Amino acid sequence: MSEARLARLRESISSMGLDALVVAKIENVRYLSGFTGSSAIAVVTPESAVLVTDGRYREQAGRQAASWEVVIYAVNIMDAIAGALEETRSLGLEDSSTIAFQSRLANALAEKHIEFTDAVVERLRAIKEPGEIDAIRGAVACARHAWETLLPMIQPGVSERQLAAGLDYRMMSAGADKPAFDTVVASGPNSSMPHAGITDRVLEQGDLVVIDFGALADGYCCDVTRTVCLGEPDPEALEILEAVHLAWEASFAVLAPGVAVAEADQAARDRLAESGFAEQFVHSLGHGVGLEIHEKPTLSRLSKESFEAGMVFTVEPGVYLEGSMGVRHEETVLLTEAGPEVLSRDITSAK
Ligand code: ZN
Ligand code: ZN
Question: What's the rounded mean pLDDT across residues 127-156?
Answer without folding.
Answer: 97
